[in-house]
Every structure is written in C-alpha cells, then in structure tokens.
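Batch manifest, entry 17 of 40.
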Amino acid sequence: MDTEENVRLAKRGDEGAAEAVLTEFSRMVTALAHNYADYGDEQDMVQVGLIAVANAIKDYDDRKGAKFFTYAYMCAERRMIDEARKNSRRIKTVAFENVPEPQYDGGMAERLIAEELLQKISGALSEFELKALMLTTQDLSYAEAALRLETTAKAVDNAVSRARKKIRALA
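Output type: structure tokens
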C-alpha cells in the first residue's frame, strides 16, 4: 500500500496503517532531528518529530492539494523548531565559560587584567557578535535579542556561536 492510502486508513482508526506510516517516516524524522541535536537530545527530537507525524496523520486533508509527505515533513520540522526554541530558552547561555568574574577589591593589577581581557574579547568580535553576546548574557532569549537587534533568532544564534569560538581561541 502507498502512503496516501495508509494515511486514509489510519484516519479511520486502522492502527496497523498508522504504524506503517510512522515506520515509513521514522528515517526522515531521524535525519531531520539530527539538524536540531544542538538544541536538545537527538532522541528527544526524534520523538517530537514522530509525535508530529502522528498528529499530521489526524489533521491531514488531501483535498488541499499537498502530498502527505510534504505536510508531515513540515509538521515535524516546525515542531522540532518549536522544541529547539523552548530548549534554548531553558539553557542559560554562558559565553565567558572560562573567564572568572572580575573582582574589583581596589587592586589595580586585577582591574588592569580584567580590562585587558575585555579589550581582547571586544577586539576579536565584530560589533554584531559583541551586541548579540551581551544581550544573551543578560538573560534574554535569542528571540528577544533578535528583536532588539532587528534580525532573526538564527542570526543571533550564529553570532553567539562565532563569538564563543573566538573567545575560546583567545584562551
């Protein structure tokens, strides 16, 4: 049986047909989940994607002209994107992982070291990377930082990733 027929049967309650569709789509969902592994456990993303495909079976309407594969793919991808966004808000981004918090107890040497370190970091980053890094270390999500920078959350994510890489190279 083809996918479209299995979907029609699954919509009528045929669990075997629903299982066949999920099995058929498991490889696609696994490949898609690999793209979002940086935002959560890859197996969790696979589960999110398979649940989205199961929901797509229930919601699919072949009269709208889209193939089930296209509809299911979009549902799975969008659900994984939502999950990735939710996970990125939960994980507090710490850009200066190996840099201790400067303690200004009046010591001139400590102040100079901290200022020198901040100058090195600022000099290594582009203006956009620095702004994105500063906003995300102030407990703003990538989406909130993107609004302030008038860009996309993905651009902020990329800038923070580049900034982290450059900071690690300075150490």
